[in-house]
Write a structure and sequence with these properties.
Length: 265
């Protein structure tokens, strides 16, 4: 194959990957994985497709309120807090995002990973964004693009939530060692209900996502699910047929009691 043929083959492959990744959050996540986890090989599992499909539906506005319950170490933070917003910015760079977690260090970690993807040559080669990060608003916890979209990170109960967002995302609002304290648990619920959940730019279109492991019957998930207006995606580590929950997009494919969510992990 001569040089021109190789270049043409490369361009065709690049266009194919770009198109598939733009259409699918799961495909995009696999493509961007080496940027944020260069020392670890990507490992796929069906639950990644399920979470990605629900987040895509949130982006389109088909799901407005989403709770995802899943154990730790199942790629939940990378999917919801890193890959999803940078994927959405490919076609909707003006969208504004508020992220929170129980610890500022976790919020900062995911904010930096987002920025690492956006600034990476691969992101620009594949998606050719017609926008760039604003030089005067490019900080660890808050960065903005020149289409007025921004990503702001804070901690539960922390400062910096005065701004509004089109997407309000909370990843692990409770610290495991504190959730059995009634005072600590209720302070998180109060913070969400009175502070964070009211930060939508437009009450008619704001999307809210909470992704967390269940730690207590009366944790934030348990409190909000009483309201009944949340789509609930529950992915337990071990399958329990009597406790399975379906959504309009998902029926747990596992059939055997105790079947693992991610056997290879």
């Amino acid at each position: 194959m001569d040089l021109s043929s190789k270049r043409r083959a490369y361009e065709i492959l690049k266009e194919k990957v770009s198109l598939e990744a733009t259409r699918s959050l799961a495909v995009y996540s696999k493509a961007m994985w080496p940027i944020v986890e260069p020392k670890h090989e990507y490992s796929h599992n069906w639950h990644i497709d399920v979470i990605a499909e629900h987040l895509e539906s949130v982006t389109r506005g088909e799901i407005r309120n989403l709770i995802i319950n899943i154990p730790p170490r199942h790629m939940k933070s990378l999917l919801a807090c890193v890959f999803w917003p940078t994927w959405t910015w490919i076609q909707w760079p003006e969208s504004r995002w508020l992220f929170s977690s129980y610890a500022e260090s976790l919020s900062k970690r995911d904010s930096l990973k987002c920025r690492r993807i956006i600034e990476h040559p691969l992101y620009n080669i594949l998606f050719k964004p017609e926008w760039s990060l604003a030089s005067d608003q490019n900080e660890k916890m808050r960065f903005e693009n020149n289409k007025t979209g921004y990503r702001l990170a804070t901690s539960v109960g922390g400062a910096g939530t005065g701004e509004g967002g089109d997407f309000i995302v909370c990843d692990d609002p409770h610290k495991a060692t504190q959730v059995h304290s009634t005072q600590r648990r209720e302070s998180v619920i109060e913070w969400w209900r009175e502070e964070m959940s009211s930060r939508g730019n437009d009450p008619k279109t704001v999307r809210k996502v909470i992704i967390m492991q269940r730690l207590h019957e009366k944790d934030l998930s348990g409190d909000l699910l009483v309201d009944g207006d949340w789509c609930h995606l529950m992915l337990p580590a071990k399958f329990e047929p009597k406790r399975t929950i379906s959504t309009p997009l998902f029926v747990d494919p596992r059939k055997t009691e105790g079947e693992l969510l991610w056997p290879s992990r």
